[in-house]
Design brief:
alpha/beta; Rossmann fold; 4-stranded parallel beta sheet
């Protein structure tokens, strides 16, 4: 399977995880606009630029960040995920389209329906003029890397040789494989090889992280400084398609939990609690995001204590949130002890 064309006019930005196999099958370079925003040199400046153009203060930071990086990096084509993600994306897509940017919609069906998802994928594939056979070939190519991501995940919670932030960074980047799967795979191989020289990490509290990736820049490092470690990154792991060995690509994206209802996430999280011996969960919610409401379901259905954190703009964790994390860890130590 040949890699994507590296020319800038072959870049395609996207607002949330999509069947990335379609983009690679068509010879384009996919770019996760969320990752591009949060890893930019000055993400807060991206927000200020969007607000200067009229985006309200109470609009989600990720929406404003995506808008700014699309313009900053001169994307000509953006895939807007209009179902299964933030409803604000619909309006964002119209604003970008008004700026002359080509918008290609992709919508996960509300129901976890094979028929509806197949139809959505076929419509998406038609935009890029690729066949099921070509998409399947791309899947096989990317599954080789996903197998190594599964190994990295096991090294995190079984062998205790990978930090929570390393786990987070590689899994969250598997939404687009940096647009350069060969380079991504080489760096992943390097990290896995490096773990052979490490001693197991010893922490007294093992945590799971739920929800969208954090806007905080130092969450994982802070947790480890306090003697705990994140051994399960729920949504980031979903980006890596943990059920990639489902031979049928439609089945693979039916197993993907993020776009569907919260109840569908519960078995995956509970399995992780058991397998990874998790003492407690951190549920991150983004300010002004409807997904905050899912906290009610998660607290009612899950079997371990949950600390809910809310983030608004990029930056380090504030003193009040640090204190809440410390108190939560001490409570878990009391229970575990």
């Amino acid at each position: 399977m040949p890699g994507p064309n590296k020319n800038n006019d072959r870049r395609v930005g996207f607002t949330a995880t999509i069947p990335v196999e379609v983009i690679y099958a068509a010879g384009y370079k996919p770019v996760d606009l969320n990752n591009l925003f949060i890893t930019s040199e000055h993400p807060t400046l991206m927000l200020e630029k969007a607000e200067a153009e009229g985006f309200a203060r109470n609009i989600c930071a990720w929406i404003k960040g995506i808008y700014s990086v699309v313009l900053e990096h001169d994307f000509r084509t953006v895939i807007a995920v209009t179902g299964g993600d933030c409803s604000n994306t619909i309006a964002l897509a119209e604003v970008l389209e008004n700026r002359g940017i080509e918008i290609i919609p992709f919508e996960y069906p509300r129901e976890r329906s094979r028929k509806l998802l197949t139809e959505a994928m076929e419509a998406f594939m038609s935009h890029f003029h690729v066949s099921w056979a070509e998409v399947q070939e791309a899947k096989q190519w990317l599954d080789r890397i996903r197998m190594k991501l599964r190994k990295l995940d096991r090294l995190t919670y079984e062998s205790n040789l990978v930090t929570g932030v390393e786990n987070h960074l590689f899994l969250v980047s598997s939404s687009d494989f940096w647009g350069e799967p060969e380079r991504f795979e080489a760096e992943l191989d390097r990290l896995i090889h490096e773990t052979h020289k490490r001693s197991p990490i010893r922490e007294d509290i093992r945590l799971g992280y739920l929800g969208v990736p954090p806007v905080f820049g130092d969450l994982y490092q802070l947790i480890e400084e306090k003697g705990a470690r994140v051994v399960f990154n729920e949504v980031q792991r979903q980006f890596s398609m943990p059920f990639f060995d489902e031979q049928d690509i439609v089945g693979q994206y039916l197993h993907y939990t993020y776009p569907y209802d919260a109840a569908g996430r519960i078995p995956d999280i509970e399995r992780a609690i058991r397998e990874r011996r998790i003492h407690g969960l951190i549920h991150y919610t983004q300010t002004f995001c409807y997904r905050q409401i899912y906290d009610i379901i998660l607290r009612k259905r899950l079997s371990v204590p949950i600390l809910t954190l809310e983030g608004d703009r990029p930056g380090n964790i504030d003193t009040r949130t640090v204190l809440r994390i410390e108190t939560f860890l001490e409570m878990l130590r009391g229970v575990a002890g």
